[in-house]
Structure prediction request, 244 residues.
Amino acid sequence: VKNWPKSLLRPGDRFDADVLDQERTRIADHLRDVGYLFFTREMVVYDADTTPETHKVDVALLLERTSYARKDRGLNGTPEGTPYYIRDVAVVTARPVIGGAPLLTDTVRRDGFTMLADRSQLYKPQALLHAIFLRPEERFRQSNADRTYRRLTGLQVFDRVDITYDTTGTRTRGIADARIDLLPGRPQSMALEGAGTNRGGALGTSVSLAYRHRNLFRTMTSIQAQFTLGLEAQQSLTGTGSGT
Prediction:
């Protein structure tokens, strides 16, 4: 109700299916941002009743689980109708093992977070947690999850970022655990490029060597250096004169 003044639907406006769809998204985004972890836009349903004589439409907005039988569509007591709090946030940076012996890992508790990493400890915990906005013991907010995803992918340090939620292990209604899986990328890379030039008929060539480090001092700080070597042939100009 507090958020209703932001509704896109106004009495007297022209009936517009696109606006109805935008309102469905707005409602779902708002509910997920106040804790309703499993609510989706498909649960916002419209019931339209037309009046041919007046060319008007009465629209009723319903919140229900449409894939269930009509008697079971209500949200009361369901995961979709329950606001969730985050109990624990696990951050996993251990590389997956494909065959061979299991990878040795360390589990570290830091500021309420559980951090699971391989023994090489590629990232300093404080530097990694600085990019995470999902917090233990706080209500789930989709905006915090989105900010976390954007920040972690924007670092360009990880090849993949996945955020998942588990409610089966908590065994408590309204409590979920969050897990952030980060696939480490190559910390260092080099690229070699060559190009030909032609400046006013003077032919030449250049070679560029680029070096990038994406995890300097394990702080996920990036540095990049580029070296370019160019060679160009010079035309020699000769002239002849005539005397009298």
In short: Helices lie at 17-33, 125-129, 142-154. The two ends are 104 Å apart (CA to CA). DSSP finds three helices and eleven strands in the chain. The CA atoms of residues 47 and 60 lie 5 Å apart.
